[in-house]
Amino acid sequence: MKNIAVIGAGTMGNGIAHTFAQFGYQVHLVDISQNSLDKGIATVTRNLDRMLAKEKISNEDKLQTLANIKTFTSLKEGVHHCDLVIEAATENVDLKLNIFKELDAHCNAETILATNTSSISITKIASVTNRPDKVIGMHFMNPVPIMKLIEVIRGYSTSDEVTKTIMALSEKLNKVPVEVNDYPGFIANRILMPMLNEAIYSLYEGVAGVYEIDTVMKLGMAHPMGPLQLADFIGLDVCLSILKVLQDGFGNPKYAPCPLLVNMVTAGKLGVKSGEGFYDYSESRKAEKIANQFS
Ligand SMILES: NC(=O)c1ccc[n+]([C@@H]2O[C@H](COP(=O)([O-])OP(=O)(O)OC[C@H]3O[C@@H](n4cnc5c(N)ncnc54)[C@H](O)[C@@H]3O)[C@@H](O)[C@H]2O)c1
């Protein structure tokens, strides 16, 4: 495998492109928006500069990594002759099904089609292609260049051979792949989201305040970040939509999203990205909060 296409240049897509390019793969980064592509390359450049400043890479590594990424606004041109496509576009079922229909039409018959979806069924995505055995989940974690885990999700028809190829490729990126089956939330979100929801319920029911809930989990359970702050970082809209996938997929009321979460999303309080969630991220305080988080 040499040529990799990444669909979507947002938070995850640019991180995935960065990681493959740093390990010498030729990356085609595709987005419908030229602005997203420009922002994506700017983010990769900034992250490489940070690694350079910490002497984790040389200036030559930085330039080579950037040279390994080419950008495209045409999906058809971007996936031409690629051995693997990793879709990391917006989390929306219809959008992803359309992308996979197009990928199936434009990619070589041998090309493996992976998706970075957090919650959508791999089996469902595979069902709109003529190669369900070659469709697989490759769930990277944010920030991609730093986080070691890749949750590799086998759809109902994903072949052993394709799974083995993706597990081996993940190791070549110096990541740790873990194989799981395709059920709602996979493993990461099936376990994480109920915990975040329970933290929100604890706040809603007045058991404790934001600071107290996060401090118990940080200092008591050695979590690097409290659950309410983590929900803010993930995006409260994203948490809500994943909980709904769990609730619908299992038909079990234990996954019902807390009414406070629903209210906050309706009010546009989405966490870091909107400037306010459980914490205040208004411009003056945002940089300071984020800096404290990672110091
Ligand atoms: N953000 C996270 O922490 C995280 C973690 C793991 C997985 N994911 C998953 O990764 C995927 C991407 O999430 P994100 O946070 O990077 O989203 P994002 O909103 O930052 O980026 C999405 C990008 O997709 C582009 N896009 C939309 N439609 C497209 C199309 N038809 N063709 C090409 N590009 C298109 C948008 O222009 C945008 O640049 C989602 O499936 C999400 O569930 C996100």
From TrEMBL:
Presence of keyword Oxidoreductase: yes
Domain 3-hydroxyacyl-CoA dehydrogenase NAD binding: 3-182
Biological process annotations from GO: fatty acid metabolic process
Enzymatic class: oxidoreductase
Keywords associated with the record: NAD, Oxidoreductase
SUPFAM superfamilies recorded: 6-phosphogluconate dehydrogenase C-terminal domain-like, NAD(P)-binding Rossmann-fold domains
Record's signal peptide: none
Record InterPro entries: 3-OHacyl-CoA_DH, 3-OHacyl-CoA_DH_CS, 3-OHacyl-CoA_DH_NAD-bd, 3HC_DH_C, 6-PGluconate_DH-like_C_sf, 6PGD_dom2, NAD(P)-bd_dom_sf
Coiled coil regions in record: none
An MF annotation (GO) of this entry: NAD+ binding
Keyword Hydrolase: no
Record-linked Pfam families: 3HCDH, 3HCDH_N
Binding-site residues for NAD(+), renumbered to this chain: 8-13, 31, 91, 96, 118, 142, 273
Domain 3-hydroxyacyl-CoA dehydrogenase C-terminal: 185-281
EC number(s) reported in the record: 1.1.1.157
Residues at the site labelled Important for catalytic activity: 139
Similarity comment: Belongs to the 3-hydroxyacyl-CoA dehydrogenase family.
Protein name in the entry: 3-hydroxybutyryl-CoA dehydrogenase
Organism: Aureibaculum algae
